[in-house]
Amino acid sequence: MSQPIRVLLQTTIPTAEDDWHIGRFSLLAQTLASARGADGSPLFEVTARDRGPVGQPDPVLSTLDSSDVDQLWLFAVDVGDGLHEADCEAISRFRRRGSGVLVARDHMDLGCSICSLAGVGAANHFHTHNLDPNPARRQIDDRETSYILWPNFHSGANGDWQSIVAVGEPHPVLHDPDEAGGVLAYLPAHPHEGAVTAPPDDPSARVIAQGRSKATGQMFNLAVAFESSGQGGRAIAQSTFHHFADYNWDPRQGSPSFVSETPGDAIQRHPHALEATRRYVRNVALWLAGRDVAVA
Description:
- The chain has one domain (5-288): Class I glutamine amidotransferase (GATase) domain (Rossmann fold), CATH 3.40.50.
- It is α/β, with parallel strands linked by helices.
- It has an 8-stranded mixed β-sheet with strand order 2-1-3-4-12-11-10-7, with helices on both faces.
- It starts with a strand and ends in an 8-residue tail after the last helix.
- Helix content is 16%, strand content 19%.
- The longest helix has 18 residues, at 271-288.
- The chain is globular, with a radius of gyration of 17 Å.
């Protein structure tokens, strides 16, 4: 029996009831905590928390590289002040020691405090930070929420699912034996996803999945994977934290009051899409830990 993989689910904001606090990722935490290996033993040991007070180092993130955590899932839900310099430095050291990191942000400048993270920070493009090098992608895509500017790719309503496309050789995190060809086909939708690309100066990184805008038909990147290299452990840059939020898996769970778009319910009416999302979560956690996704 192998030791469970220690996973830290962490937001970049202090606990605030009317915001995307860590309690709004409870279904993700339950999915990981309930996963079992072939021998019936738990695959993951999950800790879920919000950051400490803004403006000072977070007591956990700023010492992450000296902890026993195996991988960090960082939900960048801040407006630019989420990570202290000491947090970024420790997370970067954490990955350099070989540990796994997933970073998920959202539209416009939401989550832009992650830009200082070594390697994976460069994969994330915002409205005023680390602009997308392709001007054609610096355009308004979502037309329903006029005050949200680019990047804001519209893959569908919260609570609906989107079809995804594997890019290149299907990556292990997209393994799904229940789909034709064995490749994952669905993730939750969101009206305004962020922008991620593979940093051109990092040969360990590549785009692994894309979606298609329901507003413009434009293809956009959903996930960038970083293989283990001399620069650090494995990592994923995800276009939006909404792929993992309770509200997007089941809108009945509720959302902060500032969410104005009418939700859908297609992912609840199409259980296979929700099961694919859970499989993706399990795959990512195993892959970040260096495990064989197909046999674990």
